[in-house]
Design a protein that fits this description.
alpha+beta; 2 helices; about 75% helix
Protein backbone atom coordinates (compact mmCIF):
# COMPACT_ATOMS: atom_id res chain seq x y z
CA UNK A 1 0.00 0.00 0.00
CA UNK A 2 1.31 3.41 -0.96
CA UNK A 3 1.01 6.49 1.24
CA UNK A 4 0.68 10.05 0.02
CA UNK A 5 0.35 13.27 1.96
CA UNK A 6 -2.27 15.72 0.76
CA UNK A 7 -3.56 19.04 2.02
CA UNK A 8 -7.28 19.69 2.04
CA UNK A 9 -8.70 22.92 3.41
CA UNK A 10 -5.54 23.66 5.37
CA UNK A 11 -5.24 20.22 6.95
CA UNK A 12 -2.59 17.66 6.00
CA UNK A 13 -3.75 14.06 5.62
CA UNK A 14 -1.77 10.91 5.02
CA UNK A 15 -3.76 8.72 2.63
CA UNK A 16 -2.91 5.06 2.14
CA UNK A 17 -4.19 3.15 -0.83
CA UNK A 18 -3.41 1.05 -3.85
CA UNK A 19 -4.18 3.84 -6.30
CA UNK A 20 -1.53 5.94 -8.01
CA UNK A 21 -0.37 8.68 -5.61
CA UNK A 22 -0.80 11.24 -8.41
CA UNK A 23 -4.46 10.22 -8.72
CA UNK A 24 -4.99 10.56 -4.97
CA UNK A 25 -3.33 13.98 -5.04
CA UNK A 26 -5.57 15.02 -7.92
CA UNK A 27 -8.67 13.95 -5.99
CA UNK A 28 -7.47 15.86 -2.93
CA UNK A 29 -6.88 18.98 -5.02
CA UNK A 30 -10.41 18.70 -6.39
CA UNK A 31 -11.92 18.35 -2.91
CA UNK A 32 -9.81 21.26 -1.67
CA UNK A 33 -10.96 23.43 -4.58
CA UNK A 34 -14.61 22.51 -4.00
CA UNK A 35 -14.33 23.25 -0.28
CA UNK A 36 -12.86 26.68 -1.02
CA UNK A 37 -15.66 27.36 -3.51
CA UNK A 38 -18.29 26.36 -0.95
CA UNK A 39 -16.67 28.48 1.75
CA UNK A 40 -16.49 31.45 -0.59
CA UNK A 41 -20.09 30.98 -1.71
CA UNK A 42 -21.56 30.53 1.75
CA UNK A 43 -19.26 32.70 3.82
CA UNK A 44 -19.15 30.06 6.54
CA UNK A 45 -15.88 29.45 8.36
CA UNK A 46 -16.95 26.23 10.11
CA UNK A 47 -14.86 23.48 8.48
CA UNK A 48 -17.40 20.76 9.31
CA UNK A 49 -20.23 22.73 7.71
CA UNK A 50 -18.05 23.42 4.66
CA UNK A 51 -17.14 19.71 4.42
CA UNK A 52 -20.78 18.61 4.59
CA UNK A 53 -21.91 21.15 2.00
CA UNK A 54 -18.99 20.14 -0.21
CA UNK A 55 -19.91 16.47 0.13
CA UNK A 56 -23.45 17.31 -0.97
CA UNK A 57 -22.13 19.33 -3.91
CA UNK A 58 -19.88 16.48 -5.07
CA UNK A 59 -22.68 13.92 -4.52
CA UNK A 60 -24.95 16.08 -6.71
CA UNK A 61 -22.30 16.12 -9.44
CA UNK A 62 -21.96 12.34 -9.22
CA UNK A 63 -25.71 11.72 -9.42
CA UNK A 64 -26.09 14.05 -12.41
CA UNK A 65 -23.25 12.32 -14.27
CA UNK A 66 -24.77 8.91 -13.50
CA UNK A 67 -28.13 10.08 -14.88
CA UNK A 68 -26.45 11.38 -18.03
CA UNK A 69 -24.52 8.12 -18.39
CA UNK A 70 -27.71 6.07 -18.06
CA UNK A 71 -29.51 8.27 -20.59
CA UNK A 72 -26.62 7.96 -23.05
CA UNK A 73 -26.55 4.19 -22.58
CA UNK A 74 -30.27 3.98 -23.25
CA UNK A 75 -29.97 6.22 -26.30
CA UNK A 76 -27.05 4.18 -27.64
CA UNK A 77 -29.01 0.97 -27.11
CA UNK A 78 -31.95 2.37 -29.06
CA UNK A 79 -29.61 3.48 -31.84
CA UNK A 80 -28.08 0.03 -32.06
CA UNK A 81 -31.52 -1.58 -32.21
CA UNK A 82 -32.52 0.76 -35.05
CA UNK A 83 -29.32 -0.02 -36.91
CA UNK A 84 -29.90 -3.75 -36.51
CA UNK A 85 -33.46 -3.36 -37.80
CA UNK A 86 -32.23 -1.49 -40.88
CA UNK A 87 -29.51 -4.10 -41.44
CA UNK A 88 -32.10 -6.87 -41.27
CA UNK A 89 -34.32 -5.05 -43.77
CA UNK A 90 -31.41 -4.57 -46.18
CA UNK A 91 -30.51 -8.25 -45.96
CA UNK A 92 -34.14 -9.23 -46.52
CA UNK A 93 -34.30 -7.08 -49.67
CA UNK A 94 -30.99 -8.47 -50.92
CA UNK A 95 -32.24 -12.04 -50.56
CA UNK A 96 -35.42 -11.18 -52.43
CA UNK A 97 -39.00 -12.20 -51.81
Amino acid sequence: MKSVQVEIFGQVYSIKGNDDPAYISELAEYVDLKMKEVQSGTGTADPLRVAILTALTIADELYRVREQHAALGKSAGQGIESLLDVTSEVKAHQNGP
